[in-house]
């Protein structure tokens, strides 16, 4: 998840390097990179740790909070980038938002509240911003993202229910 976000941010920043302020294309991605690397290292170190039920609940809750914070911050960053560059660069921001949204939701498949929260916090502001732009292509992108998010969440719910049933049956067998 973090690597997907990080690489996608770097690619979007690269395409906006000469049109957006340095703090936006250099500073923000560097701060996020430091946070992402810290989280990756933390998860890597904890990969073999067996947590108590209470520890697991706290980690899941903190993940949901981080998803909310990152969703708002990255959406704000992306929507700020829309004001810089030409239509191709704006299209790249739209692609970044859509691709990152789908990849992130699938990375959070087994934590449904976080995935739904992420999809909501990214899709709604993005769609509103694009719908308010005076360009039919942007309107179509807004509608397309809404459709993609809806389809992705529908699939998430189906797979989550299957996962939940599998856990339930496994618990019954034990």
Number of helices: 6
Low-confidence segments, given as residue ranges, are none
Q: Into which percent range does the helicity of residues fall? A: over 70%
Mean pLDDT: 90
Output the helix-strand order. HHHHHH
Strand residue percentage: under 5%
Overall geometry comes to flat
**Main beta sheet strand tally, sense and closure:** none
Could you state the oligomeric state of the chains shown?
Answer: single chain
β-strand number: 0
Strand-pairing-aware structural class: mainly alpha
Roughly how many Å apart are the termini? 33 Å
Rg over C-alpha atoms, rounded to the nearest angstrom: 18 Å
Fill in the keyword field for this structure.
single chain; mainly alpha; 174 residues
What's a concise summary of this model?
Helices cover 84% and strands 0% of the residues. The protein is an all-alpha fold and 174 residues long.
Protein topology:
Blueprint: H1 2-15, H2 22-45, H3 53-81, H4 87-107, H5 112-132, H6 136-173
Helix pairs in contact: 1-2, 1-4, 3-4, 3-5, 4-5, 4-6, 5-6
Would you mind describing this structure in some detail?
There is one protein chain. By secondary structure, the protein is mainly alpha-helical. Helices cover 84% and strands 0% of the residues. Helix 1 packs antiparallel against helix 4 and helix 3 packs parallel to helix 5. The mean pLDDT is 90.
